[in-house]
Amino acid sequence: MRTPAIALPADAPFRRLVGIGGIGTGLFLAVEGDSTIGRTESRAARLLDVHDYCKLHTVTHHVAVLLGARPDGVPFHVAPIGVVGRDDAGERMVVEMAAAGIDVEHVRTVPDRPTLFSVCFQYPDGEGGNITTGDSAAAALSDGDVEAAAGLMDQQTIALAQPEVPLEPRRRFLQAAGERGCFRAASFTSSELDEARGTDLFSLVDLVSLNAHEAATIVGADLDPTNAAPFLATCADAFPAGTGVVITAAADGGYAIQRGRWTHRPAPVVEVVSTAGCGDALLAGVLVGLAGGAPLIGETGGPADDALSLGVVLASLNATSPHTIHPGATVMAVRDLAARSGVAFGGPLSALLEPQEARA
Fold first, then answer.
1. Residue 112 phi/psi, 5° resolution?
2. CA distance 4 to 170
């Protein structure tokens, strides 16, 4: 039996999420010793029981579960565009996405490339890195994949462009989405930001999602939570006027900027197990809130009445799981964490997150 989901109002602005990006998996290793691994060194590590997923999978999963998505599009439609290999990892990703209610018709399988795979390593002090396959199936995604799914996009569609696939098909995807009146959201890795800015890719986006490091790459300095305004103003200036910006700030919660306004929503205090996937969870919560008619930024200092608020609570919930996707991140779990943390949802979020038995 599927878990209860948010019931969108009849006048909800969006009924579909179409996304493009990498689909894959990986593993986590806890490295022994704090010293950096040398070029020719062998080092012992412990394999962690962590389920790792790529960004597109993470965001679409949360949106699908919270909104009760089904492949037939009723009550909500989530359709990723991606490429996986004809291997066990690719098959597992497709099966898991379908089990969450995601329409996998536009996830293509290729026989000559492996599914995107990442090996993440972490030192005892919490720092670490990862190595990701560069010749994976995800790299084979093309403009043709975009054109094949373009018929799904309309004015009730959120179009999401995620990393781990080439920039060019992402550009074509955002162009096609704009031509069809979609709301366009995107994220970029730190190494992609200069190219995206230099090629005017930001002009094709209505909402940009950044983590603290990506935002600092744009600003040229780290975010100071005690004096965030100058940092946020400089970050906003990097994007066309009117573009919304969401910044994940780990334990400090999240920030949103739009049309000269900004707001901050603090993170509920939780026992953090892992922050992997929390930025993607925050973006997913924001998109769910927008789908339900909540504004990106609500009444500053007021109740949790905006999409950012939902994103921050979902990200905090995700941090309580070792996995990139918290398997128990349901509407009930979000509502319960908010209640325990003293987060009072207001505005459209109040109705969206109201228990279904109360609605009845």
1. -105, 5
2. 33
